[in-house]
Automatic annotation (TrEMBL):
Keywords: Membrane, Transmembrane, Transmembrane helix. The chain crosses the membrane at residues 15-34, 46-66, 72-90, 102-135, 186-206, 212-233, 245-266, 272-295, 316-333, 345-365, 377-399, 405-424. This is DUF4010 domain-containing protein. The keyword Chloroplast does not apply. InterPro entries: DUF4010, MgtC_SapB_SrpB_YhiD_N. It comes from Halomonas icarae. Residues 191-400 form the DUF4010 domain. Residues 18-142 form the MgtC/SapB/SrpB/YhiD N-terminal domain. It comes from the Bacteria. Coiled coil: none annotated.
Amino acid sequence: MEEVTRHFLDANQPLFRLVVALLLGALIGIERGWVAREQQAGERIAGIRTHALVGLLGGIAALLSTTLSARAFPLIFLAVAGIALVAWRARLTERQDYSITGLVGLLLTFCFGAVAVEIGPALATTCAVATALILDNKREIHGLLAKLQAHELDAGLKLLVISAVMLPLLPDQAMGPGGSLNPYEIWWMVVLIASVSFVGYFAIRMGGAEKGILFTGLFAGLSSSTALTLHFARQSRLTPGLSPMLAAGILIACGTMFPRILLYAAVISPGLLPALLVPVALMGATLYLPALWLWRRHRGDGAVQQPGSGQNPLDLRMALFFGALLAVIMLLGEWLRDALGDAGIYLLATTSGIADVDAITLSLTRMSLDAINPDTAVIGIILAAATNNLVKAGLAGAFGTRRTAGRVIMPMLASLTIGLATAWQL
């Protein structure tokens, strides 16, 4: 029975794929018909029936190209494009609408039918659904474009340059002393850091100041928890009554560093994640819980100006600094590992954590793949994170009020103690 079913499906596969081509055309036609639902019958250039038939025609054209002549598909495509152009040109005499989005959607529908038949229904379906979503969200897309600022567009294009253009050009091979440097992996980590900062910026930008310190601290921690700590500490001197809420914002921003560490480990060295998950999660929870308690207790005290909304979404100088720092740490890690063993790695992690935790985290997760023991990498990452948060607690004490510093330092010390104790036990 199973053999007969398989034979039936194989024999009728072209028919099934033509059905998919028809349905994908109908999907886009439903969206187009909904947009033009107010128009009278015959006023629409292409609705659900036309798009469904064009999708089916694309599938048939693909079959004809493989069975009769390779010229069938391009000739039929040109015929469809010509008919559509004539129809759109005729409509311009009645309506001054110069948008060609509908025309492009119709031609894409034809192509999706061909893709469904000759390449695969899954790819055609994905493309058709994406096209329908784009067509259906015209107002939202134009609204986002209207809100986009020039420096934000520039930042997005720069991110595409460093990720989609420069990254594939770099050699993916070990270089330098002991093969500790890989240009592709170092630049990929630069892209990763820049991407996290970019996402964090737009999370704050889209959320708005009215969401309060809870939202601001959470997402500012993706881009620069140090900058947020300095801003909130200074703010606590200007508005002492808000110091509990500001302390909560600092703790949330610093706690957000720990999910970021887990993200780096999951992407770079998934095998490190099980050993890192428990201590890092506990360290983050030790900061989040008192922060949420402070926020819930004092959230009626007022609002704080949103930090970082005017900053550069993509500071390439900082990303390049991280890349250079990462390369230096990897070289030092190779040397210290040979000279002092695990003790050298711990010393490197502690000193690196004074300035930044991302570079040493990326370095140790990369080294855990082949250069150091995973347990050593876990201890090193936790030492760096604890040191980094203690530095931020010092900044809160130096630039903020005594009450703000007190609310920040105690959870920081508890986070350090719990994280190190858990890591050593595991």
